[in-house]
Write a structure and sequence with these properties.
Elements (H helix, E strand, L loop, with lengths): L11 E8 L5 E6 L10 H10 L8 E2 L3 E4 L8 H5 L6 E2 L14 E3 L18 E2 L11 H5 L5 E3 L4 H10 L1 H5 L1
Parallel strand pairs: 1-6
Antiparallel strand pairs: 1-2, 2-3, 3-4, 4-8, 5-7
The chain binds iron/sulfur cluster.
Iron/sulfur cluster (SF4) binds next to helix 3.
C-alpha cells in the first residue's frame, strides 16, 4: 500500500523530529499502518535479527513525506536527491524507528549512498525537508511509492507548527 494519495488529510501530527540546527524540523504523522515493510522478507529478517518489534511508524515529513511503513530501505531516494534532503536515520542515531517520532538529529547520517543503510530496519528520513527543490526524482524512483512531495502541503506544516508551538518554543 503506497503512501495515501490524499496525505496528509486523514492524518494527525504525532511528533516532531527536530534538526539540531535549532531552526528546522519536520513533523511525524499518524496513524501508521501495516504496509510493504511488514511484508518484505529483508525487512522482517533485519527486525528479527535485532530483536526489535516491527510496528506501525507513520509518515515523516509534510511537504516531503515518506511513509516509513511503506519504506523497505531501498535507498534510491537518497542517491537521486540533488540537495541531500534525506539521510539514513540509523547511520546517525542507531535506535528503534519508533523512537524517531520525537527525536533530534544533527543531519550527519549517510545522505548519498543508495546502499548506505545500517541494515533493512533503516529508513530514509527527510531531515532537510526545507531544502527540497521539488524535482520529484525521489518520487519517481521509490519502488513502493512511499513518497509524496507536494509543496502545497506547507499549510499543513504551518497548522501543525501552531499545534505544537509550546513544544517548539521549549
Ligand atoms: S523532490 Fe527532489 S529535491 Fe525534493 S526530496 Fe525529492 S529528490 Fe530531493
Amino acid at each position: 500500500m503506497p503512501i495515501d494519495p490524499q496525505y496528509p488529510k486523514n492524518h494527525q501530527a504525532i511528533g516532531i523530529h527536530r534538526n539540531a540546527d535549532a531552526q528546522h524540523y519536520h513533523f511525524v504523522w499518524g496513524p501508521g499502518k501495516v504496509g510493504e515493510a511488514a511484508e518484505n522478507d529483508d525487512v522482517k529478517a533485519a527486525y528479527a535479527s535485532r530483536g526489535e518489534d516491527l510496528v506501525p511508524l507513520g509518515v515523516h515529513g509534510t511537504m516531503v513525506a515518506l511513509d516509513w511503513d511503506s519504506c523497505i530501505a531501498d535507498g534510491g531516494c537518497i542517491s537521486v536527491c540533488p540537495v541531500q534532503v534525506y539521510q539514513w536515520y540509523r547511520t546517525e542515531l542507531d535506535v528503534p524507528a519508533i523512537q524517531m517520532q520525537n527525536a533530534t538529529s544533527a543531519g550527519t547520517g549517510d545522505d548519498r549512498e543508495k546502499d548506505g543503510r545500517k541494515d533493512y530496519t533503516d529508513k530514509s528520513d527527510p531531515i532537510r525537508e526545507h531544502d527540497c527543490i521539488w524535482c520529484m526524482a525521489c518520487v519517481a524512483v521509490c519502488p513502493t511509492q512511499a513518497i509524496k512531495v507536494d509543496q502545497s502541503n506547507t499549510s499543513f506544516h504551518e497548522q501543525a507548527s501552531q499545534k505544537f508551538s509550546q513544544q517548539l518554543a521549549a
